[in-house]
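Forum: Protein Structure Q&A
Topic: Joint prediction for protein chains with partners

I've read a bunch of threads here and the consensus seems to be that you should model interacting components together rather than docking separate models afterwards. I'd like to see that in practice. Below is the full input, 673 residues plus whatever partners are listed. Could one of the regulars post the assembled result?
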Amino acid sequence: MADASDTAPEAGLSRRIVEIIVALILMALSAMVLWDSYERGAGWDGGPQNGFFPARVGWILLIAAIAAFVSAIRREDSVFVTYGQLRLVGSVFAPLFLYVLAIEFLGIYAASALFMAVFMVMLGEFRWWQTLLAVIAVPVVCFWVFEIQFRLSLPKGPVEAMLGF
Amino acid sequence: MDDLNQLLLGFQVALSWTNVMFMVVGVLLGIVVGVLPGLGGPNGVAILLPLTFGMDPTSAIILLSSIYWGALFGGAITSILFNIPGEAWSVATTFDGYPMAQQGRAGEALTAAFTASFIGALSGVVLITFVAPLVAKLALRFGPAEFFGVFFLTFCSFIGMGKENKAKIVASLAIGFLLAAVGLDTISGDLRLTFGSSELIKGFDFLVVVIGLFGVSEILLTIEEGLHFKGKKAAIDLKVVLRTWASLPRYWATLIRSSIVGMWMGVTPGGAIAASFMGYGLAKRFSRNPENFGRGEMEGVLAPETAAHAAGTSALLPMLALGIPGSATAAVLLGGLMIWGLQPGPLLFIENKEFVWGLIASMYLGNIAGLLIVLATVPVFAAIMRIPFALVAPIILIVCAIGAYTVESSRFDIWLMLIFGVIGYVFKKLDYPLAPLVLAIVLGDRAEDAFRQALLGSGGNLSVFFSNGLVSTLMVMGLLLLFWGPLSAGRRLVMRKVTPTRSAPASS
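Posted by a regular:
Agreed with the consensus. Here's the joint model:
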């Protein structure tokens, strides 16, 4: 694992804060598990009840999360991710999020074409015909492989309905 | 002898035209998967698994395991030419491989790496051929308590042998168990941990989790380093290959040592990473010129590659014989067995002989095919890395999304993939190990069933886990591994007190 600490002068998100947030989320998660398990019975009723095992694991998670929390407070702080890197990650994540959202409405093929276009125009330095080629080729190849070769039905939207699929 | 006959029958199965074709396609796909960022072994196999649901199980596993071999070979290409380890166990390969490439000896380094991988993998397959049937035979006598003992041993060895913060390994395992518990409880028929959400009733499918954790997160991590890869040129011709091969016998001791280390570590889960570093460390210690290590010494490429691949292959031994995978990719393959309707575990060797021995025979053939294919096609695959990231990344993400969807034909799974992508990104940056999480998802239900059945049989008495020699041994070994860190630290402390004159090196 590359440690971000060797690029010390660059400003970024504190690793300690992220460690603490993750530990807190894990604690909350274990609390939810324990609540759910004891609600349904985590004890012994002629055999282990169905909450028995998750409850034990929940306690273990809680202890591990507390240990991670303590060691996060005690460790020397470093940079989790620099703001420059975070912007790059965001520039991939934002289109990806919109892509998954678009699949809900447009189906996977139209959404993929849009996703390719956004990605290549925003982050790449391509000629217009290269972008166009990729935008058309990727959904078509996917359609051929999945719908025709493997007969798997992928999510479709209004565009496919217009074309009669 | 009986096993050898079975193996010959296996070769007949594996050598049919369709299966050889699947092998070649698998190896080629695997190299692509190994070379591209965001598509490691586990993720590549997970994406393709849904496509094999309708196939004959033997052909399906030959295809998928060939992807595994290809990915192992492909990892070496990026390590040596681009200084980017494809998998965690290729990290040690970059130490000497990349300097060799910088000196213009990329062809030599690649040939050495591929050949070393081949030797390592071959020793792993030989181990599987002869030891797996014996282990399976022993395991036939296992009851639920013994099986829980083996699960316990597996999880403990992850905790004890892992290099990460112990609390984080335990947390990863626990998260995996809890994710596995979500949904319908098979024994009582009740819903657990769904919190009233209808989407969660079917639980978390491990394939979706793997695609998010290993695929999407890897793309997010890769983008941090910027949008361009700077790689060295690779040219392999027959002369370089033959010259490198001619120099290999000189390193026979390193190859054997690394193979043994790899086989040993591979059978214990999570061992491949440790094995590659151990192989490297041992080669350096026994070398006549250790000062050359890290500056482009061929032995420094051979040692970790042999060990990592011996371990990566041996990781399939417990998967086949006990139904307990030794690595994340093996865990995904195991999930495949269950989907194809095969019951993983010792009975596989009796009820599905053709499948098991066909797979083992295909391991021999797949590795030979892999070596030849990878030697012939390195320049092509090195060129893949030069395709701009802005073109490759969206295609990989689209394939991930389709892969996540096809598992259950559920749009909700694509959202889950996205969420697990973010979780994987944060976890990798914080050194929470991901392999234990995946393993726990795959094994969680079965470990719980074994635990509950054992306790039901004994009327809730925990002494069932220490009721006979076999299960006690497993549990004690598990406990020993669990406390391996504190135990060896304690031993070191004692040793230090005995020899107070020697200043001990600072231990990390």
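Chain B touches chain A through 61 residues (CB under 8 Å).
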